[in-house]
Amino acid sequence: MISVLLARARDYEAERLPKISPAVLPRFHVTGGVGWLNDPNGFSLYRGEYHLFFQYYPYATHWSDMHWGHVKTRDFIHWEHLPCAMAPDMQYDCRGCFSGSAVELPDGRHLLMYTGVGNTSDGGEVQTQCIAFGDGVDYEKYEGNPVIDSKLLPEGGSSVHFRDPKICKTDDGWRAVAGNLCSDGNGAVLMFKSPDALNWQYAGKVASSDNRFGRMWECPDLFRLDGKDVLILSPQEVRGDNLDFLNGNTTLCLIGSLAPDNSLNREAEQTVDYGLDFYAPQTLLTADGRRVIIAWMQYWNSVDVRPVKELPFFGQMTLPRELRVENGRLIQNPVRELEACRGERVAHSKVMIAEKTELPGVNGRCLDLTVSVRPGGSGEFRRFNLNVAEGCGYLTSICFHPNENTVLVDRSKSGWPQEVMNRKMFAVDDKNGEITLRIILDRYSMEIFVNGGEQAATFVLFAPEEADGISFEAEGTAEADIECFTLLI
Ligand code: FRU
């Protein structure tokens, strides 16, 4: 039996989704199709397919009562929409089914673990962790919900800011990490353990912000990768610095090893993405053992500026990325499945760039483009610009300064109708004036992977598709190798 609220969402989708022209949707980035989308949820392998749920309000392009939307894929590129999976239809989640995760149970059921936002008797709000079971399409909320509530919180833990459980299998049962705001104003990631995914107990504090990385810590994910324990989370109210963490909502990766009390001995800290539109990432392990991450391709602070008002949806996911840890750093690259979508290869090697240059066959808005640049000629090489989504008065530039070892991305002419955060500079590793930039372009986005995935930087773009030019310029002379594939999706 599905609730009235869920039936309403599914009827609405069934009526609206078929009428939406694919020409207004991103080609290979997930959207709700209709309505509002934020965090990825329940990213999991289930019965041989990858399922992705998301924070979703089907009826309007703004955040409101959170449902869980649902899509699935076999290759992370082509996604199939499934009916809305959950609506806020219980007393304990009447203010929203907030973010969470999913696992396949040994008995073949799909388990969703999420935050229910409910009312307290005095009109306040309370967040508890809840469960639903399903078959990959239909989900039923567990009659014993909530499975984790404030009674399990350590001293000083908040029952109002207690959310986003990420569940995973362990040798002796299940483990979940969740975000919390402690009474001393610090964000924390708390761990819980269970033998059966239903009965939980508190198992320790994995990490906390210690007044350095913001306040509430949202959407934690803890996994083992390349011999390290990796904790990824999304802190709020960070005082960023220009070259690394953003002010406000940002993403943080802590790399180290878990101690017996489940606290993380930190060896390295970094931002996950150096762009302007990346939040609340979540990972899964693929059937062939790859750790793959996906994030909401948006920044909370710019959601109220609607670049294209008539679009039926708001919010997209990033392209899923494969993760590695190398020399204490998180390395990210597009899932290898993207390569199967490459069309004809256009390559130009050892091109000398000084004045503005366009190259035959190098243009488009659905592209996988790699540019390697190094000092060329005799003059001093001081700057290299790669311009994309250019034309009709639009242009987005990626500017490398070899002397300062920085990249500055400027999307102020990318179609945002008002000034939002449009420029982002980040430091890159000194490689004697060399850099490799891989750029993935879709209808409304640009994802940059620097030096084989040492850094990633994600930006939403809203230039119309006719702005499909690509050009190169340098101060001094640069030598560039360019490889460009149109993506056939
Ligand atoms: C992160 C977040 C989560 C919460 C969800 C609500 O973007 O604030 O902490 O569960 O969004 O939609």
Description:
The chain has one helix and 32 strands. It has one helix spanning 4-16; strands spanning 35-46, 49-57, 67-73, 79-86, 97-104, 110-119, 125-134, 139-141, 157-170, 173-182, 187-194, 201-208, 217-225, 228-235, 252-258, 264-271, 279-285, 291-296, 313-314, 321-326, 329-334, 342-353, 367-375, 383-391, 394-401, 406-413, 423-427, 435-442, 445-450, 455-460, 469-475, 478-487. A hairpin with a 5-residue loop joins strand 6 and strand 7. It is globular. The model has no long low-confidence stretch (mean pLDDT 96). Beta-D-fructofuranose binds at residues 38-39, 55, 66, 98-99, 115, 163-164, 218-219, 279-280.
Task: Note the topology.
Elements (H helix, E strand, L loop, with lengths): L3 H13 L18 E12 L2 E9 L9 E7 L5 E8 L10 E8 L5 E10 L5 E10 L4 E3 L15 E14 L2 E10 L4 E8 L6 E8 L8 E9 L2 E8 L16 E7 L5 E8 L7 E7 L5 E6 L16 E2 L6 E6 L2 E6 L7 E12 L13 E9 L7 E9 L2 E8 L4 E8 L9 E5 L7 E8 L2 E6 L4 E6 L8 E7 L2 E10 L2
Parallel strand pairs: 1-19
Antiparallel strand pairs: 1-2, 2-3, 3-4, 5-6, 6-7, 7-8, 9-10, 10-11, 11-12, 13-14, 14-15, 15-16, 17-18, 18-20, 20-21, 22-32, 23-28, 23-32, 24-25, 24-31, 25-26, 26-27, 28-29, 29-30
Tally the helices: what do you get?
1
The averaged pLDDT comes out at 96
Ligand names: beta-D-fructofuranose
How widely separated are the two ends? 37 Å
* Main beta sheet: 6 strands, antiparallel
Beta strand %: over 45%
Shape: globular
Quickly give the structural class: mainly beta
| Oligomer designation | single chain
Number of strands: 32
Helical residue percent band = under 10%
